[in-house]
Amino acid sequence: DVKVTQSSRYLVKRTGEKVFLECVQDMDHENMFWYRQDPGLGLRLIYFSYDVKMKEKGDIPEGYSVSREKKERFSLILESASTNQTSMYLCASSFQGSSYGYTFGSGTRLTVV
Amino acid sequence: AQSVTQLDSQVPVFEEAPVELRCNYSSSVSVYLFWYVQYPNQGLQLLLKYLSGSTLVKGINGFEAEFNKSQTSFHLRKPSVHISDTAEYFCAVSAPSGGYNKLIFGAGTRLAVHP
Questions:
Q1: A50 touches chain B (CB under 8 A)
Q2: B114 pairs with which residues across the strands?
Q3: Beta-sheet strands, E only, within B1-115
Q4: Is there a contact between B53 and B105 (Cβ–Cβ < 8 Å)?
Q5: Mean pLDDT taken over chain B
Q6: What is the pLDDT of chain A when averaged over all its residues?
Q7: Burial of B80 (0-12, 13-18, 19+ CB in 10 A)
Q8: CA nearest B51 in A: which residue?
């Protein structure tokens, strides 16, 4: 069964900490995405990557960075966590080409205290 | 540019009743259309997709959707819902391109099935 695996389901971090959210896919997908999901705001794209070492800003990149050193792994980094980054974070991946849907991970619920 | 509007943020329905979740899109080019479901505290799962051909698309869990090009709609339907269908449903659109695959998601519709 194809999978997108997010390293943590629940995470609690302190304000100011550097936080790493890891995402790994085993489908040889070119594209990978990070979204955050908040009640009433739907899915908002933070960053995406269409190839190794390539990254593009999404709609809300402020306060985040990403790393894609290998094709299967896409990391989201919160340089200095703040309480307004408390959210559900979803990773997704897909093949190149717009007829392919995304495969999503199970999500990481991050709480910053 | 494409956009997606889900017309209802919440839809309450009784068990075994039919349901329709509405989705409209805007695009100046041909599009591909998707419906995803998200159960509580989980990621999104693909329910069905329309790429071309028959406008009635059948998906998992008894759901189906109809593509209507003149109405620019892709409404999701189920003839008889179960308690287990309680979830959030997202409509999404993408356009053919040679570049990266970027889906545009609607804001979601929360389906609440009551006994």
A1: yes
A2: B14
A3: 3-6, 10-14, 19-21, 23-26, 32-38, 44-50, 56-58, 64-68, 73-78, 87-94, 104-105, 109-114
A4: no
A5: 92
A6: 93
A7: exposed
A8: A99
